[in-house]
Amino acid sequence: MVSDNGKRYDYVLANPPFGKKSSMTITNEEGKQEKQDYIINRQDFVATTANKQLNFMQHIKTLLKITGQAAVVLPDNVLFEGGAGETVRKELMKTTELHTILRLPTGIFYAQGVKANVLFFDNKPASKDAWTKEVWIYYYRSNISHTLKKNPLHFDHMQDFIKLYNPNNRNKRTETWNEENPEGRWRKFGYTEIIERDKTNLDIFWIKDKSLTDLDNLPDPDVLANEIIENIEAGLLSFKEIMETINGDE
Hints:
Helix 1 (52-63) runs parallel beside helix 3 (84-95). A hairpin with a 5-residue loop joins strand 2 and strand 3 (33-37). The strands form two sheets. This protein has a six-stranded mixed sheet. It has helices at residues 52-63, 77-80, 84-95, 159-165, 191-195, 221-249, and strands at residues 9-14, 23-27, 33-37, 64-75, 96-103, 116-123, 134-139, 186-190. The two termini are 28 Å apart. It has one domain (9-249): Vaccinia Virus protein VP39 (Rossmann fold, 3-Layer(aba) Sandwich), CATH 3.40.50. It is globular, with a radius of gyration of 20 Å. It contains six helices and eight strands, in the order βββαβααβββαβαα. By secondary structure, the chain is an alpha/beta fold. Helices cover 28% and strands 22% of the residues.
């Protein structure tokens, strides 16, 4: 990721390592080891940041041919983080067609509590107008339960998404969400609508979690226990990142 070797590809399918910040351990003047943020500074990047997920996103964009296509697994912070995150999202929607986001549930990775998404985008030639006209989101998260042991994610679980994705003709897509069907998982959002959101936030959701409202039909105890564990671990990861940021600023 440090430099551009000049190679370009038709397709990039990637699942970069998770973890928000890049850091390196150095020995200070007192002989003690300390961590410092490892910031990538490249002329072909639109934002300089220590967030390795945002750096991977920018790097993958540079690897594509003008007609190249990418599908990248990324955590939620890439969708909502401000500062460099907002800059990267705006540039991505301007210079590529970010046509689809698949929002995945927890319980499908070995690291508990990880909330991930798959971003699908097609590279495009330079243009004064943004290439992304609308973003389609498949919200495979609320009221979905997967665990690695009892209910791992399989190809069959993605058949509805694949059908609605309509790979043979994306221009013929049809929403399943509407006012009469507010729990439809397939919904489109226009470019202007997204740009007007605070920080160009793509962390979009609309389906309520039934387990929070329907007390008579709660999930099995082991499912509830796993969800509690995942939420606690996700909270601990976020708190750890905050502490690393605080310590790094001292």
